[in-house]
Amino acid sequence: MSPRPDHFWESKTLEELSDQEWELLCDGCGLCCLQKLEDEDTGELFYTRIACRMLDGGTARCRDYNNRLESVPDCINMRPLTDEKRRWLPASCAYRRIAEGRGLAKWHPLISGKADSVAAAGRSVAGKTVAESEVPLYQWPDYVIDLDELVASLHRAKRA
């Protein structure tokens, strides 16, 4: 069975996507914009509840997406998506899912046809973060979270 014409992510590699198609793959959950800590010895990544200063905590969207790379020096441009960059994305991320051959999640707006399906599925960090400006760097380890547990708790909260 061949992919449907409107399912561009099934017939193209990430490298072949147009800029518009690339942007459409982002589900807007905001998980990638949570600050992370990396263990220098093991390379293990730890997510925090701390939002990048450019993330609007109420909408889980970047306040200035087009200029984010200039405004935030450690913001990572995911395109092209290398293996090293991919590890900084949550497992639920559409870019990571496509790169790993897992397809889009059923709650992704391109599958559900609904712009609010990410929030409805409890997958958005909107309203669940702490502003970067409120937490001194030395306290960031106090805000480390289990990303799988955060996503599960967001999902449970939406079902309640």
Q: How would you explain this protein's 3D organization?
A:
With 160 residues, the chain is an alpha+beta fold. The protein contains eight helices and six strands, in the order H-H-E-E-E-E-H-H-H-H-H-E-E-H. Strands 1, 2, 5 and 6 form a four-stranded mixed sheet that branches. A two-stranded antiparallel sheet has the order 3-4. The longest helix has 13 residues. The protein is globular, with a radius of gyration of 16 Å.
The major sheet is characterized as: 4 strands, mixed
What is the strand tally?
6
The total count of helices amounts to 8
- List low-pLDDT spans: none
**Rg over CA atoms:** 16 Å
Helix content: 25-40%
User: Which structural class fits the helix and strand makeup?
Assistant: alpha+beta
Number of domains: 1
Task: Give the ordered list of helices and strands.
Answer: HHEEEEHHHHHEEH
Classify the beta-strand content into a percent band: 5-15%
Task: Give the SSE map.
Layout: H1 8-11, H2 19-25, E1 34-38, E2 45-51, E3 55-56, E4 61-62, H3 68-71, H4 83-86, H5 94-99, H6 109-112, H7 117-120, E5 130-131, E6 144-145, H8 147-159
